[in-house]
Amino acid sequence: MDRVKEFYDKYKVYLTRPNLELLAVTVIVLSAILVFTSGIPGKGVLMLDQGNIKYDGTLVRGKMNGQGTVTFKNGDSYSGNFRNGVFEGKGTFTSQSGWKYEGDFSDGQADGQGKLTTEGNVVYEGTFKQGIYQNAH
What we know:
Protein name: MORN repeat protein
Radius of gyration: 26 Å
Keywords: Membrane, Repeat, Transmembrane, Transmembrane helix
Number of strands: 9
Shape: elongated
Distance between the termini: 85 Å
Pfam families: MORN (PF02493)
Number of domains: 2
Mean pLDDT: 92
CATH class of the largest domain: Mainly Beta
CATH superfamily of the largest domain: Histone H3 K4-specific methyltransferase SET7/9 N-terminal domain
Strand content: over 45%
Structural class: alpha+beta
Transmembrane segments: 20-40
Low-confidence stretches: none
CATH architecture of the largest domain: Single Sheet
Organism: Streptococcus panodentis
Largest sheet: 9 strands, antiparallel
């Protein structure tokens, strides 16, 4: 307790209202700068699921946002746009087993215009909805 009193007696001359207000404003400004700069996109690599999933691309606040490539342990890969960690927009999903989908994604699924090429090189081109080809007759 004596140390606290000694410390206070030594520095009480600096504990004025203007100095405390200046300190408060400085803390607020630094906090605002931190909040705004943490939302700036940057390039990075994420290792997920104990290294079974690797993402290389744009990160915003630690999440996959923007252009990038994700590679799965089994050899599958997706290259394209992400939003909040999910396939969103234009991209290409390539399966290790040999099929490939190129086109629009929504909420992590083939959704919109795209082209699916099977392992046997059969091509389905047209509209997909929630991962299902819609132009079948």
